[in-house]
Specification:
By secondary structure, the protein is mainly α. 56% of the residues lie in helices and 0% in strands.
Amino acid sequence: MIDLAKQLRDEARKSGLSMLAMSQKADIPYAAVHNFVARERGLTLATASKLATLLGMELRTVKRKRKG
């Protein structure tokens, strides 16, 4: 399984956008972006979705087979 947080952090760094620019463009509080990129906290699904959209990513649900 791919780590969503790692992917978002990697894409945020690759984007070349400052944390302030990401915050403003995605309508996310600066502290939330800063703390996430600095690995001080996670993101809510709504905030992750906004950040993913800004970075050209798509969040979608995936059905998994149950074991047993």
